[in-house]
Design a protein that fits this description.
Elements: E1 3-6, H1 15-31, E2 34-41, E3 50-54, H2 62-74, E4 78-86, H3 93-97, H4 116-130, E5 140-144, H5 147-156, E6 172-175, E7 183-187, H6 192-202, E8 209-212, E9 215-218, E10 228-237, H7 255-267, E11 272-280, H8 289-299, E12 303-305, H9 308-317, E13 322-330, H10 340-368
Parallel strand pairs: 5-7, 5-8, 8-13, 9-13, 10-11, 11-12
Antiparallel strand pairs: 1-4, 2-3, 2-4, 6-7, 9-12, 10-13
Helix pairs in contact: 1-2, 4-6, 5-10, 6-9, 7-10
């Protein structure tokens, strides 16, 4: 089955049906046991007139593909969908070797960041870790490291789809909308390893945003329990991505997301500080203070946590706009460590407001950037172009 659509010859009112024809062909090729390929000819591009990409299980990214193919056809591209090669089973000896990202040039112009084998495995692992199908994820994803935010999310969205049973390692809950621009909340638990694992796999879905709403230790005198911290950058002591993203590479949150979060904080007159977040892989860093304190003071950090920099670094690697809004749950440098009694009081008081601020930010994204945040600042000139800037 091969389908070709020339955007230059289709009237605007016929493009929606043409995109659906392409998507149905992708799904049919996948169902027949082949990896579907998409070839795009872009007459306007001098340096990259022809780009291509392979996919696995296109149903999981159907909404994403619809948006991108619509943009390309609107600009006059010629799009062909065709079978590429037979799909490999997870038990195929060649499957493992095909997962290596180094063999798949992440910087070359293409339609997708990943090979179909990597995509297929990540979709399966999302379901395994989160307890819900990958197709359930919405375009906006919020991460937490506490079940209290899951409780607040389910109170806010009582019809949210979630795991069938309570055994998922990183349970996900989804407030779904017809356009896919709802919100998915994932409790990744504590630590950078889980944060890396989940964002590695989530990246194949190409979400529009990722926001971390975890708790942190406040490091400044005038912070109080319950104050918010809006990250402006990160000091990476999590180490889980050092081999693939050197610590010398600057990682910062998305400016628009931070602006929207800041507006939501000020609208509610919520106390907050902005600044550098120190992310560590050592939950008991207080027991070995010298190196951590030296780094914290040198970088003028305002908070310490265990997940934020990891999510931000993988967001940078995989070109996903991200931001971090933390809430101070303890002050380790000021005789206020996290203890059970005070922590529980703090959790109950903060959980709804914390989630509400993140959701208010995403409401603005939907209104002001319904087709996704601009991604030009996420890519170097020779990197993949699928995304809101896919026609460049």
């Amino acid at each position: 089955m091969e389908v070709t659509i020339d955007g230059a010859t289709h009237k605007p009112e016929a493009l929606a049906a043409a995109v659906e024809e392409l998507l149905d062909a992708l799904v049919g090729i996948d169902a027949d046991g082949w990896y579907p390929a998409v070839d795009v000819v872009r007459p306007w591009s001098e340096h990259n007139p022809r780009i291509t990409g392979e996919f696995a299980r296109p149903t999981a990214v159907r909404r994403y593909l619809a948006r991108e193919l619509s943009a390309l056809l609107t600009h006059g591209a010629v799009v062909t969908v065709r079978p590429s090669r037979k799909s490999l089973g997870f038990s195929d000896p060649g499957f493992f070797a095909a997962l290596e990202e180094d063999r798949f040039d992440l910087r070359a112009k293409k339609l997708f960041l990943f090979g179909p084998e990597r995509m297929a495995l990540s979709l399966e692992r999302l379901a395994h870790y989160c307890g819900t199908p990958a197709e359930s994820f919405e375009r906006h994803v919020v991460f937490t490291n506490y079940a209290i935010h899951v409780d607040a999310f389910r109170e806010r969205f009582p019809d949210a789809e979630g795991p069938a049973q309570g055994t998922s390692q990183m349970p996900a809950w989804h407030h779904r909308t017809p356009d896919g621009d709802g919100v998915s909340l994932v409790n990744i638990g504590v630590g950078p390893s889980n944060a890396k694992t989940l964002t590695d796999h989530l990246a194949v879905l190409r979400p529009d945003t990722m926001i971390m709403i975890g708790h942190c230790g406040g490091l400044r005198n005038h912070q109080r329990l319950g104050d918010f911290v809006l990250a402006t950058s990160y000091l990476r002591a999590d180490h889980v991505l050092d081999d693939v993203l050197p610590r010398t590479v600057p990682v910062i949150p998305n400016h628009r997301l931070n602006s929207f979060l800041l507006h939501a904080l000020e609208e509610r007159q919520a106390p907050y500080r902005i600044g550098v977040v120190y992310t560590t892989d050592n939950r008991n860093w207080e027991f070995n203070q010298e190196t951590a304190l030296s780094d914290i003071r040198t970088a003028r950090c305002v908070a310490v946590d265990m997940e934020s920099a990891t999510i931000a670094a993988n967001g940078f690697r995989y070109r996903i706009p991200n931001a971090t809004l933390l809430c101070v749950s303890d002050k380790p440098l000021h005789a206020s460590p996290k203890l059970s009694g005070s922590a529980q009081t703090f959790y109950e008081a903060s959980r709804r407001e914390h989630l509400a601020i993140a959701l208010a930010c995403l409401d603005r994204v939907r209104v002001e950037h319904p087709d996704g945040l601009p991604s030009a600042d996420l890519r170097a000139p020779d990197e993949p172009l699928f995304g809101v800037d896919g026609t460049s």
